[in-house]
Write a structure and sequence with these properties.
The complex is a heterodimer of chains A (130) and B (296). Helix content of chain A is 75%, strand content 4%. Chain A is mostly helical and 130 residues long. In chain A, strands 1-2 form a two-stranded antiparallel ribbon. Chain B is 76% helix and 0% strand. Chain B has 13 helices and no strands. In chain B, helix 2 packs across helix 13, helix 3 runs antiparallel to helix 4 and helix 3 crosses helix 7. Chain B is globular and about 75 Å long. The chains are: A mainly alpha (130), B mainly alpha (296). At the A-B interface, helix 2, helix 4, helix 5 and helix 6 of A face helix 2, helix 4, helix 5, helix 6 and helix 10 of B.
Chain lengths: 130, 296
């Protein structure tokens, strides 16, 4: 009890830093949530004057095309994860449990895509496929 | 008693199936290697070769010359932003991971551990949009600063320039490097730190002289991975600061979308590859030094 009380300035200091960190992390997210439901918001006011779903209706309407885009995104992500797992799990098993002749070189080949910026790859994949 | 111990030890040790070696290993690894070869190595090779070819296919240095003439400022801008972001990411990662390892208030350590990981799950493009709302002249940051009386309403400024890009990168990548670093620090032996503390070292000194030297490799890996990732992000600079000067990823996209100029785009890609190679060289040098120090 006495030890905890003796250290209270440092506890307060750390709690303050944590508060600032929480603001830095959740501030932008909170801002996004407020903007998503705001319908009218002018500068000096700290919060919107009107809340509503007007923009949601506009985005998810028939002409908005958001449902198709969302569906495509989710489908691509799921397919990528499934195919990556299907290919990576056997490879991982082989690297860990089976004796491979060029184990070091194969590991290097798997690590290389992580060490290289992928924009050049995207640019030229488009050329290969189109 | 000893038989169960021996059995437990054998069960936990991984076994290599030497009989089915060779062919099985090749078959298991082949699909992954084929994908890397076809969808990574081939386009990368095309990119490097494409930087030296003009529209008719002849070999030329004109693309490099044009890229140098038009985009040197942006290249220097890119280096500066990514270097500054990497330094800030390292600083935050060391601070947060250090407190998680050496902190003495269990509740605050638990709170920090819960808090710092949130930005990990947010894609770069969403982080760019978050920062556009947060850092704008009428954004949340300025609202809070004005509301708490720290700045005057008239002196509020928009941070949507190079500072916004750095903030977005640090916000997104610092938790990743912190995660790596905290894991490495947690696997260290406590006795070194405890011995130092018993001899009177402060926690800060224990962090910089005992803990950090042992996790230098992990920190370097995290920073190099972040460096390479930040070099390839298009969404963040496009959303926060598309005006000149900007990062070369924006220039690459512009060259392709507006001019269909794959030559100069590939030349710029070559430049960013060279930059990434410079970063990777730091890591390789450290890894080689470590390997040499380890062998007697």
């Amino acid at each position: 009890m006495t030890a905890a009380w003796r250290g209270w300035p440092s506890t307060l200091g750390v709690a303050l830093v944590l508060g600032v960190l929480a603001f830095a992390i959740f501030g932008p997210l909170f801002n996004l949530v407020v903007w998503a439901f705001a319908e009218r918001w002018y500068f000096p006011h700290k919060l919107p004057s009107e809340f509503g779903f007007a923009f949601w209706a506009r985005v998810f309407s028939e002409r908005g095309g958001a449902w198709q885009a969302l569906g495509t995104s989710v489908w691509i992500a799921l397919l990528t994860v499934a195919l990556s797992l299907a290919v990576a799990v056997p490879a991982g098993y082989a690297l860990a449990r089976v004796r491979l002749r060029w184990r070091g070189l194969i590991l290097l080949a798997f690590l290389l895509p992580q060490a290289v910026p992928n924009l050049p790859v995207y640019v030229n994949i488009a050329r290969v496929f189109y | 008693m000893s038989e169960t111990l021996a059995a437990a030890r054998d069960a936990s040790r991984p076994r290599r199936s030497f009989e089915a070696g060779g062919a099985l290993g090749a078959v298991l690894v082949a699909p992954a290697l084929a994908i890397i070869g076809l969808f990574f190595a081939l386009p990368l090779g095309l990119s490097v070769v494409g930087a030296f070819r003009d529209k008719d296919g002849a070999y030329t240095l004109a693309n490099l010359a044009k890229a140098y003439e038009l985009y040197t400022t942006d290249f220097v801008f890119t280096i500066a932003i990514v270097a500054l972001s990497s330094a800030l990411i390292a600083a935050f990662a060391i601070a947060i991971a250090g407190y998680l390892t050496l902190g003495e208030h269990p509740r605050l350590v638990a709170a920090l551990r819960w808090l710092y990981r949130w930005p990990l799950f947010i894609p770069f493009i969403v982080a760019g949009q978050l920062m556009r709302g947060f850092l704008a002249k009428n954004g949340t940051l300025n609202h809070v600063l004005i509301g708490s009386g720290l700045i005057e309403p008239l002196t509020a400024q928009s941070l949507l320039d190079w500072r916004g890009i750095v903030i977005a990168f640090v916000w997104k990548q610092a938790p990743f490097v912190t995660l790596l670093l905290a894991g490495a620090m947690a696997s260290l032996e406590r006795q070194h730190v405890e011995a130092a503390r018993n001899l009177g070292a402060s926690r800060l000194r224990a962090l910089f002289e005992i803990v950090l030297p042992q996790v230098k490799g992990t920190l370097l890996v995290g920073i190099v991975l972040s460096f390479v990732t930040m070099l390839s992000v298009l969404s963040v600079p496009l959303m926060i600061n598309p005006n000149s000067p900007t990062m070369i990823t924006v220039d690459i996209a512009y060259r392709i979308n507006t001019h269909a100029d794959y030559g100069v785009a590939n030349a710029l890609c070559l430049a960013s590859l060279a930059l990434a190679a410079a970063g990777a060289w730091f890591y390789l040098r450290h890894a080689v030094q470590r390997a040499e120090a380890a062998t007697p």
